């Protein structure tokens, strides 16, 4: 039986009147210090802090080292379809505010073996993204990377990390979450189900959601698939073309990338995105060009890939506000930031 | 007897040939993935991670909640003399990348009582700052704020926090630090000495360092004073005019601010900067004007100050890279960042 969390349904109702929703969101953003003092949101921010603590505890116990991520740089992850990067003038050069520090993670994985960032990201999303409930212009992700690891290792770790964190939050805040937010956190069954991208397309097609076979899952199809699960699940092996140049193409299966997403159950959608990284310098250049980008912009990265060859790593990123939304059963990610910034709305703190 | 750490002396020798130093720094920044893999720097980054863990453990045990800080905003701390702010185009409005999130800390202290950020900061420092050894364009600070607290409470907490962290690092990494970096961490005597700004000026004058009486301590005078101490120490009660508009003027002693710095011993200089915050809306407007700034730019902040009156808080920020420099006995802060960004040097990762 499909099940969609009431908060997700409530959000859908909110956005059905676009004008009213936008006015409400403008107020929300402009006077955020008001609602940030409500008991409900005090709990949300304490749960967010606990989730960060749980993830750090878990990763530290596995030998990971926390690294302070870059904030700006000459390049940032270009694989953010639809969103623009924020640029600054850095002593006469155009630098970007990180939209995702993937290329920089690999660098430190080569030094320390297993690392993570809690990294600040800015993505200037298109104006319509305010109606999705899952896009913020400003957000944090816990971003990790492992040297000499495969995407299967990364999936195994992601599963353990999410199960540990949800259990931790249930133990520490479960009673309060039920009383104040009506949120009953589930007990997860492990292992989480794993669908290849092809299997996922078949799955949603059977449920009546038509998804182009060589593209990422559409949000609508994701939500339907998510509502048929009571634990998170994986979709892996995306077709080349659907993802960033740094997701490694399988040498045995051309056209298929060694990457994955993890989705939350109950209609909450994407939790995690991860991959093994492409490390063949010539392939990197070709795939950067394929995206319509200039390899010169990535010169430090390409030189590093040559010098540290084979710079073989795998990792993933988990959005902290989306995790908080899931844990607290919130309507939208803008309820999980004390200073929410959403597309096209200016004038808040 | 004065004592300056050998790494500080080594740095002074390095910068005595400005041309050669600049060339060396350009190489350092451009190929940072090379030295980041040396055993020495692997240890530095592990110590940095441990210092963050120690500070979080300490603060969590005192009831503080970690909050994810803003990354950009309509305003950021304007009290960064000499440095420029990095600006982005945020849907047609000019937003700044945080150079310090002080105003935003107060907001969450009003919600949760005691909070901290590990906050990303960008300050476009003047080109000459590469010769100080203590300025990065991109850095992180642990930034905390307490509701209904005084600057004496903040000094007491700062003292405990630093003593705890240094002890923790000595316990966990002491042997390695001695073997690999020749760094012998001291045992601190508490309480740390506290000098009013006036006493500090007298102190350095006696040592032959002439400091204008109503200005902040000059770096040279700080270093001399620091070399006469074997534990960190405080300088408090700065004269109005020397600091940001948000440092509270003492109502009983006009012209004197209820604020402080903590300095490291051994010539390492500033560790912490903190204050009680001004909360009288009229005073805030007057002091923003005094700085030559337009109060309109701070409208959300001024409105919040009125609505939450009296928004009485105190707190401080501790630079993570400067702390790492001190803990590891490094020559300069650019040894404490895996992707160092310094003034005027473009082209690294």
Automatic annotation (TrEMBL), chains A, B:
GO annotation, biological process: asparaginyl-tRNA aminoacylation
Domain Aminoacyl-transfer RNA synthetases class-II family profile: 45-338
EC number: 6.1.1.22
Group of enzyme by EC: ligase
Pfam families for the chain: tRNA-synt_2
InterPro entries listed in its UniProt record: Aa-tRNA-synt_II (IPR004364), aa-tRNA-synth_II (IPR006195), aa-tRNA-synth_II/BPL/LPL (IPR045864)
Keyword tags: Aminoacyl-tRNA synthetase, ATP-binding, Ligase, Nucleotide-binding, Protein biosynthesis
Keyword ATP-binding: yes
Keyword ATP-binding: yes
Residue stretches in coiled coil: none
PANTHER family for this protein: ASPARAGINYL-TRNA SYNTHETASE-RELATED PROTEIN (N-TRUNCATION), ASPARTYL/LYSYL-TRNA SYNTHETASE
Stated name of the protein: Asparaginyl-tRNA synthetase
Gene name of the record: asnS
């Amino acid at each position: 039986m499909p099940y969609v969390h009431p908060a997700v349904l409530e959000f859908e109702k909110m956005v059905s009147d676009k004008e009213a929703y936008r006015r409400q969101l403008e107020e929300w953003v402009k006077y955020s210090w008001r609602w940030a003092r409500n008991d409900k949101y005090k709990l949300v921010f304490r749960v967010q802090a606990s989730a960060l603590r749980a993830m750090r505890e878990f990763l530290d116990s596995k030998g990971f080292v926390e690294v302070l991520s870059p904030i700006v740089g000459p390049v940032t992850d270009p694989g953010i379809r639809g969103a623009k990067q924020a640029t600054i003038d850095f002593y006469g050069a155009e630098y970007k505010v990180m939209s995702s520090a993937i290329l920089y993670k690999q660098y430190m994985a080569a030094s320390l073996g297993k690392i993570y960032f809690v990294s600040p990201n800015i993505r200037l999303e298109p104006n319509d993204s305010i109606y999705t409930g899952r896009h913020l212009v400003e957000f944090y992700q816990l971003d990790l990377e492992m040297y000499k690891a495969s995407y299967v290792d990364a999936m195994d770790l992601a599963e353990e990390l999410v199960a540990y964190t949800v259990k931790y939050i249930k133990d520490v805040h479960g009673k309060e979450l039920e009383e104040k937010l009506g949120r009953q956190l589930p007990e997860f069954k492990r292992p989480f189900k794993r669908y290849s991208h092809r299997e996922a397309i078949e799955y949603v097609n059977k449920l009546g959601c038509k998804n182009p076979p060589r593209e990422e899952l559409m949000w609508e199809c994701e939500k339907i698939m998510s509502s048929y699960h009571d634990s998170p699940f994986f979709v892996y092996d995306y077709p080349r073309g659907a993802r960033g140049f740094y997701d490694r193409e399988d040498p045995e299966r051309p056209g298929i990338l060694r990457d994955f997403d993890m989705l939350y159950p109950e209609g909450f959608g994407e939790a995690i995105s991860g991959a093994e990284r492409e490390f063949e310098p010539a392939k990197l250049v070709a795939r950067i060009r394929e995206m319509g980008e200039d390899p010169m912009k990535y010169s430090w990265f390409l030189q590093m890939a040559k010098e540290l060859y084979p710079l073989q790593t795998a990792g993933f990123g988990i959005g902290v506000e989306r995790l908080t939304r899931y844990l607290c059963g919130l309507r939208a990610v803008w309820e999980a930031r004390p200073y929410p910034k959403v597309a096209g709305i200016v004038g808040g703190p």
